[in-house]
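Input record (one chain):
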Amino acid sequence: MSTVIPVAALKARAPKPEWLKVKAPGSDNYLRLKGLMRGLKLNTVCEEARCPNIGECWHHGTATFMILGDVCTRACAYCAIAHGKPPVYDLEEPARVAHAVETLELKYVVITSVDRDDLADGGAFIFAETIRQIRARRDGVRIEVLIPDFQGKADPLQAVLDAGPDVLNHNTETVPRLYRVARSGGRYPRTLELLERARTYAPHIPTKSGIMVGLGEEWDEILQVLRDLRGVGVEILTIGQYLRPTEQHLPMARYYTPAEFAELRRIALDMGFGHVESGPLVRSSYHAHEQADAFAAARG
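The corresponding structure, as predicted from the sequence alone:
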């Protein structure tokens, strides 16, 4: 397939293609889950990151819990989550998350967080304690963690893995050339190192990563990232369209078509990924339980 040449940045109010239009949220189950989150003073990445799938996911009773507050110590140019100096973290938060999981009778849970570079362990203790609290309250639940890079430290990663998540996810987000402009607090080699460490330390826990397209990357750069991720043993991959949250965020270069996403999925599967979710509305946690089920089925 020919190289994708980035086009001029799209205007912030340019009409979205039909394949990116979703229904506004508002079902009874959506409102019930929203009320529970408010009552327990919990954050979700669904809301904070302005995910386009919030209506669908919350209607089906699934959500991605965001622990360690709602203020990030980093200021990634693509992300809608507030950044600045976070408050002191809440030691009771793991218990509240576990209560929500029990109340909702969830079978699959995704736990993520803001970056907490102000903490020596990056918040790894709270991740681990949340896993333990959920398992104590809800038998048979599967837990996926979408973790920050912990500034490249090995001990926090191992602490999370020792708590026994079912899937370890860390997003790559974009191609190396765009890290400086899009993900100034991150390092591409550090991302690969974390994923490789996880597979080496806990080979029984599958690793997962995701990338966005539409930031100005070229086709060949995407394929190199896929090769790099397979090279460090990543099994589950997500590929989705970057959508600019506000005019203050990084401009979008182009929309990818459903056919291009299908082609990326085909290429990734040919590289040996166990499961690939690739589409305009795909986000790291979108249909996460189905991704894990499909991976398990593919690997037998």
